[in-house]
Amino acid sequence: MVDQSVVNYGPLVSTERGDFLSAPFTKEEIRKAMFSVPKIKAPGLDGYNSSFYKMSWDIIGDDICYVV
């Protein structure tokens, strides 16, 4: 159970900011985020680094966006 006195303590996110933060991501935003990751970053848990995703984006981009 959540203690409401703790939830309401301190600064709160405005309704406008909350709407912005909870808005769905666009495919273009996801693509830009992926392509902003340096190529030399270490692989993720799946063993692939960003180079794989960038080079394969035309094939896997829609699937990645669906998962996100």
Give a verbal description of the structure:
It is a single chain. The chain is mainly α and 68 residues long. It has a domain at 25-67. Helix content is 56%, strand content 0%. It has helices at residues 4-7, 15-22, 27-35, 50-55, 57-67.
Feature tags:
mainly alpha, 68 residues, 56% helix, 0% strand
Give the SSE map.
Blueprint: H1 4-7, H2 15-22, H3 27-35, H4 50-55, H5 57-67
Short description:
The chain is mainly α.
Q: What is the residue-averaged pLDDT?
A: 90
> Radius of gyration from the CA trace?
18 Å
Strand content: under 5%
- The helix/strand order is HHHHH
